[in-house]
Design goal:
alpha+beta; 4-stranded antiparallel sheet; elongated
Length: 420
């Protein structure tokens, strides 16, 4: 598996002899399957091995496009440990090598539409809807390269190491001299001199040095054009045939750039995601499922955290984090309630809204409409404050529904916990 942004930032801090933990908020990130990342790299003239993708067994007819000494057949899921995984059919291994095209086709058949179980998947595994068949790469030498947005540098940095193909944090711990960190001016970009210096540090020689420098510049262009926050290549290799190849990639994207990168975000494979999170995302709702018994609907991340904390304080536990944001409309409130009630563990719902930008009357109308539409069966406690709150309270009162109003957050939490 490629390394997470938090791991790489730890490498930056190790290089400065700062031994502090990095706290990362839990947020939903776009994840691409391996073949999707390779396609994106290829689009920006980054050298990757040739491959085909099979969604059905007939797609293996295009194996003739490849001319390898050896095929590598890889099940496409987001979890790691594929090579040691086991399919629900009993077939072992989500990664196989073969020199026989007939065998490669047979391996695809063993993987497609089966569930692959690894150390990183749920117990029943993850369905394999795509299988990548690629030309195996002869690796003479492995190096490491990563471009990363880092707030301590106020912009992008490049991390490079001639010791690729291994845990970069271990390299930073044991041999920090093998780590090079190079800040990049976002306006100037990666210059020819910078690219050559990096290629030299990675121990590429002669014509390979020129090729490596060009690959680094191509990776930088992609980093900018796709609004990436991380492009990590491990390993970044030299082959006996005199090629520089990006064998494995981890690409992270800026969620705030989704409106510019719609084509990329539409590539997301949601097979492995919580379906409630996927549904929430369709309606611009921020939802994270948890294992508690009180469903929470709030506006604002800070208010959500406070709501979850006070529920815990009074002896219950939150079933989710659900932030409707500042521009919520009635239809979104309905969708939020449908997502909350789809969790069978939810025994009560607590709505905690402070209307600054949000109009409390809009929330109230949405609550009433949702309760009537889905015939809510669990207790509902509502605390509203802020813009148009008096009109909102009147809407709830006039609805005739068994909605418990709360005077403040403390009162709301007590009533929610008592109701279950």
């Amino acid at each position: 598996m490629a390394f997470q942004i938090s791991n790489i930032r730890n490498v930056l801090r190790l290089g400065k002899h700062v031994h502090t933990k990095w706290n990362i908020q839990s947020v939903r990130h776009l994840n691409l399957l391996e073949y999707q990342s390779k396609s994106l790299l290829e689009k920006y003239n980054v050298t990757v091995q040739k491959f085909i993708v099979a969604d059905k067994i007939e797609d293996t007819n295009s194996l003739s496009k490849l001319n390898p000494g050896e095929y590598v057949v890889k099940a496409q899921i987001l979890a790691g440990g594929r090579g040691l995984g086991v399919f629900d059919s009993g077939f072992k291994g989500g990664v196989h090598l073969t020199k026989d095209p007939v065998k490669a086709k047979s391996l695809v058949g063993e993987m497609l539409n089966k569930r692959l179980i690894t150390k990183q998947t749920p117990k029943d595994g993850i369905p394999v809807n795509h299988v990548m068949v690629a030309e195996s790469v002869d690796i003479l030498r492995e190096t490491y390269l990563c471009i990363l947005m880092d707030r301590e540098y106020n912009g992008p940095v490049i991390i490079a190491s001639p010791a690729g193909g291994m845990d970069i944090e271990d390299v930073a711990h044991k041999t920090p001299e093998l780590i090079k960190t190079l800040p990049v001016d976002i306006f100037e970009g990666v210059t020819d001199q910078m690219a050559n210096d990096l290629a030299e540090f990675l121990l590429f020689k002669g014509e390979l040095k020129k090729k490596a420098a060009q690959e680094i510049k191509n990776l930088w262009e992609m980093f900018l054009k796709v609004d990436a926050v991380q492009v990590e290549i491990n390993p970044f290799v030299e082959t006996p045939q005199g090629q520089v190849v990006s064998v494995d990639a981890k690409i992270g994207f800026d969620d705030n750039a989704k409106f510019r990168q719609q084509e990329i975000f539409n590539m997301e494979d949601t097979t492995e995601c919580d379906p409630r999170e996927v549904e929430a995302n369709k309606y611009n709702l921020n939802y994270i499922g948890m294992d508690g018994n009180i469903g929470c609907l709030v506006n604002g991340a800070g208010l959500a955290m406070a709501t979850m904390d006070i529920i815990q304080l009074y002896g219950a536990s939150p079933a989710n984090f659900l932030d409707v944001g500042g521009t919520v409309q009635e239809q979104q409130v309905l969708q939020a309630f449908q997502i909350l009630t789809s969790d069978k563990n939810v025994k009560a719902i607590l709505v905690n809204v402070f209307g600054g930008i949000v109009n409390c009357a809009t929330i109230a109308s949405g609550i009433v409409g949702a309760c009537k539409r889905i015939e809510l069966k669990v207790p509902l406690i509502v605390r509203l404050e802020g813009t148009n709150v008096d009109a909102a309270k009147q809407i709830l009162k006039d609805s005739g529904l068994p909605i418990q109003s709360a005077s403040d957050l403390d009162d709301a939490a007590k009533k929610a916990v008592a109701s279950i």
